[in-house]
From TrEMBL:
<dbReference type="GO" id="GO:0005319">
    <property type="term" value="F:lipid transporter activity"/>
</dbReference>
<protein>
    <recommendedName>
        <fullName>ABCA2</fullName>
    </recommendedName>
</protein>
<dbReference type="Pfam" id="PF23321">
    <property type="entry name" value="R1_ABCA1"/>
</dbReference>
<keyword id="KW-0813">Transport</keyword>
<dbReference type="GO" id="GO:0005524">
    <property type="term" value="F:ATP binding"/>
</dbReference>
<dbReference type="InterPro" id="IPR056264">
    <property type="entry name" value="R2_ABCA1-4-like"/>
</dbReference>
<dbReference type="Pfam" id="PF00005">
    <property type="entry name" value="ABC_tran"/>
</dbReference>
<keyword id="KW-0677">Repeat</keyword>
<dbReference type="GO" id="GO:0140359">
    <property type="term" value="F:ABC-type transporter activity"/>
</dbReference>
<feature type="domain" description="ABCA1-4-like C-terminal R2 regulatory">
    <location>
        <begin position="179"/>
        <end position="252"/>
    </location>
</feature>
<dbReference type="InterPro" id="IPR003439">
    <property type="entry name" value="ABC_transporter-like_ATP-bd"/>
</dbReference>
<dbReference type="GO" id="GO:0016020">
    <property type="term" value="C:membrane"/>
</dbReference>
<dbReference type="InterPro" id="IPR026082">
    <property type="entry name" value="ABCA"/>
</dbReference>
<dbReference type="GO" id="GO:0016887">
    <property type="term" value="F:ATP hydrolysis activity"/>
</dbReference>
<dbReference type="InterPro" id="IPR027417">
    <property type="entry name" value="P-loop_NTPase"/>
</dbReference>
<feature type="domain" description="ABC transporter">
    <location>
        <begin position="1"/>
        <end position="116"/>
    </location>
</feature>
């Protein structure tokens, strides 16, 4: 909506003092846009793409060659400059889309998942480029499912669930406000000592939640409001030798954990929507008649619904998955805006 790609259904927004409803052309002159899916012509080369967009941007003819060469060098596309875009790898296509967004020195740049399909080296290169852009005083709005990318680039971060903002603030603020306390990771010298460590946590940290349990490693989540770091370290230091602990660490929950918590909400909402019957196939008259029709009370069903679910307790680690696996499973549901 801010770029004019989709018509605005309600509300108002201003970019550089110009309304996106009444002055959209003025707004588009001051923004750069890299879409999620590369809008490239397969038969045009990188140089031809950039020449086309410099003319659309209104760059003076005398400066066109210099601007195109700057973009090719800035995105390290010089060696592919005269090859058709259809032959590029996914990473080079994203680089070219980013270069197009930078043409004309826009004050606001929208990047929709700019590092998709890039290898680690190319991804780090683009991160450094975005940081350089920010240092020049320009603003960058990007969407991403990579929390590592958000921590590397963002000064403020927002998470959307079902198309609505659920949080907005600095990374540390989101960790403090929506995080799950501390993560305690313990590594033992022998696999047999893991059971003793589990018993120790059950006795001394009954509210702790077992998140991972592997050969000689266990990981617990501990709510920060119930215990202080000093108490955690004091109790752990007392049993390091007794329980045969090789090493342990206490850390604040990561941004991944915050993301997973919000992604779960969207997943739950989707399940509810799928399970609830939709009356889209009924005519208005049929819906009115169905509302007027008396419904027999199903006491047996009511009894089942009113029962509280039983809590299952198990000492084994079957079914436990890591936060990273959980994030990957749910990441497609939730968007992160930086």
């Amino acid at each position: 909506m801010l770029t004019g790609d989709v018509s605005t259904t309600g509300g108002e927004a201003f970019i550089g003092g110009h309304s996106i409803l009444r002055e959209l052309l003025r707004v588009q002159q001051s923004i750069g846009y890299c879409p999620q899916f590369d809008a490239l012509f397969e038969d045009l080369t990188a140089r031809e793409h950039l020449e086309l967009y410099t003319r659309l941007r209104g760059i003076p003819w005398k400066d066109e060659e210099r601007v195109v060469q700057w973009a090719l060098e800035k995105l390290e596309l010089s060696k592919y400059a005269d090859k058709p875009a259809g032959t590029y790898s996914g990473g080079n296509k994203r680089k070219l889309s980013t270069a197009i967004a930078l043409i004309g020195y826009p004050s606001l740049i929208f990047l929709d998942e700019p590092t998709t399909g890039m290898d680690p080296k190319a991804r780090r290169f683009l991160w450094n480029l975005i940081l350089d852009i920010i240092k020049t005083g320009r603003s960058v709005v990007l969407t991403s499912h990579s929390m590592e990318e958000c921590e590397a680039l963002c000064t403020r971060l927002g998470i959307m669930v079902n198309g609505r903002f659920k949080c907005l603030g600095s990374i540390q603020h989101l960790k403090n406000r929506f995080g799950d306390g501390y993560m305690i990771t313990v590594r033992t010298k022998a696999s047999g000592s893991v059971k003793e460590v589990v018993r120790f946590f059950n006795r001394n940290f009954p509210e702790a939640i077992l998140k991972e349990r592997h050969h000689t490693k266990v990981q617990y989540q501990l709510k920060s409001e119930r215990i202080s770091l000093a108490q955690v370290f004091s109790k752990m230091e007392q049993v390091v030798e007794v329980l045969g602990i090789e090493d342990y660490s206490v850390s604040q929950t990561t941004l991944d954990n915050v993301f997973v918590n919000f992604a779960k909400k969207q997943s739950d909402n989707l399940e509810q929507q799928e399970s609830s019957p939709s009356g889209g196939g009924q005519s208005p008259l049929q819906r009115i008649l169905s509302m007027l029709r008396p419904r027999p009370a199903n006491t047996e069903l009511n009894a089942l619904v009113s029962e509280e679910p039983e809590e299952l307790e198990s000492d084994d680690d079957e079914g436990l998955i890591s936060f990273e696996e959980e994030r990957v499973q749910l990441s497609f549901n939730t968007d992160t805006l930086c």
